Structures are given as structure tokens and as C-alpha cells.
What does this fold into?
Amino acid sequence: MRTLCIRIPLETERGYHAILPNPSVRLRMPIPHKTGYIGANSMEMGLGMAETVEFAGLDAPPNKARAEILVRQAKQLFPSIEHGDPIFWMGHRPSTPDSVPVIRSFSRYTGLYACFGHGHVGLTGGPASGLLAAQMIAGEAPAFPAAPYILQRGLEAD
It folds into this structure.
């Protein structure tokens, strides 16, 4: 987008995760733990713990202490849990300053569409955003109002 002189106000939410291999606890469904602001989910690789995020940009090294918090929180949720050595990882989530995704076309560039900026709710918002973007591209009537996502909101070069 920068090459086309389109300025996009984006920041990265860095999401931290811990996988606890061979856990003694197996969940039948994901658990969102709102008090601890974490989520737990049994996965093929083990018990997945996620939800801590930070704004630190693309170039900062991962902060392992943020992921280690998830192991402590798992032990608070499941006091008797036993597991193998945790596997830590971090992913980037593109976020807009107002937390509303950008879903739009650019009148100066025929055939250019944008659908990004879901931040922390990409897996939740992605399918509906994808539907809206597909309908825009196909010239179909949108399944829900598109106006909140098409607004300029700091984007340059329309």
C-alpha cells in the first residue's frame, strides 16, 4: 500500500501463546477465563494458553516473560496440572487505532480492495469481513451495513 501512496495507520498487537505438551488436563471445549484475560484450549500438541498481548512494534524481540505468565495462569486454573516443557510463541496481529477493521475499495485503483486490521479478534471477525469483502468485489449487495468499515478513518489516497 505504501508503494501506492496509501497511508495505513496500523500497529501490531503481539499475541503470546504457550503450549503445554502432554497435559494431565484435557478440555472438552475452549475456556475463556475473563478474570485472568486468558483462554485455554486442548489441542493436538497439548493444552494451548493464549491472550496476553502487547504493543511493541514489529522489530522488538519477543518478551518471553509475557508467555511464561500463561504457564502460571494455567496452574492457577488447574492446580493439579502436570505437563511437559512449555512451547512459547508470539504472533503479530495488525490493528487499527480505533480497533475497527478496514474493508473497502480504493477509487483511484480499480480492483484494489482491503480487508485487514482485525487485531485481537481476527478469527472472530475474519469470516464476516471476508464475506463483506467478497460481496464488494462481486458487486453484490452487502449482507450487513458496510459503512462503518469503509470510512476514511485516517486512510489517505482514495
Notes: Helices lie at 64-77, 122-138, 147-150. The beta strands are 11-20, 31-33, 38-43, 46-55, 87-95, 102-106, 109-116.
